[in-house]
Amino acid sequence: MNSLELLFILFLLVPLSHATIIEVDFCVADRSLPRGPEGYPCKNPAKVTADDFVFTGFRGEKTITNIFRLNGTVANHDTFPALNGLGISMARLDLGVGGVVPVHSHRTSEIIVVINGTIIAGIIDTNNTAYYKRLEAGDVMIFPQFLLHFQVNIGKTRALAIVSLNGANPGAQLTTPALFGGNLPAEIAAQITLISPEEVRRLNMIFDRIDTASYTSFTA
Question: What pLDDT was estimated at residue 120?
């Protein structure tokens, strides 16, 4: 056997040696037990019902009260147990007139489908180039992993969109609340953003007065 033949055989074997063998049909989350990095332990299959595979949280009209005019309803392994271990999640985004999903990023990629309304959605890459587009009902856009992105309702009515993410717990870091709604000292925030300390303190007061859970519920 020559070196080329040996290399070819090794090339075939390496992927097999790292293949993941799935030994169960599903792993519905048992949320009574602690969650680990890979998700929740599996619920006893004998106790699994059809209801575990259905999520009804996207039904009905959603209330929008926060500063961003945004309501985010999440379907992930915390709220939809059957997603546990599958590496996917979804969210419903309701945007009031003038509402925004502020600049943020995820650990995962995201795809958005506009159901109703008109929005501008955009991505900002690591060269600081912005790619943004007006989206109408039925349009789809992708946001690559880790890149900053946003959505803005530019229509005269509410906008509704559904997003899907390739992670059970994608996380989301909203830039503005991260800088001005947390425990970062105003002096440091001013230095790293080139915003005046007075403006930083004004933003701090805005975020101190509002319920951050109302606009960060989709970041879990």
Answer: 98
CB atoms within 10 A of CB 219: 19
Is 149 annotated to bind ligand?
A: yes
104 known member of a binding site: yes
CB 81 within 8 A of CB 32: no
For residue 155, tell me if it sits in a domain: yes
pLDDT tens sequence across 63-98: 998 889 999 999 998 899 999 999 999 999 999 999
Q: Is 61 annotated as a binding residue?
A: no
Residue 152 falls within a domain, yes or no? yes
Would you say 136 is a known binding-site residue? no
Mean pLDDT of the region 164-173: 88
CATH number at residue 122: 2.60.120.10
Domain with 111 in it = 51-61+68-170
- Structural domain count, the chain: 1
User: For residues 176 and 50, what is the distance between their CA atoms, to the nearest angstrom?
Assistant: 41
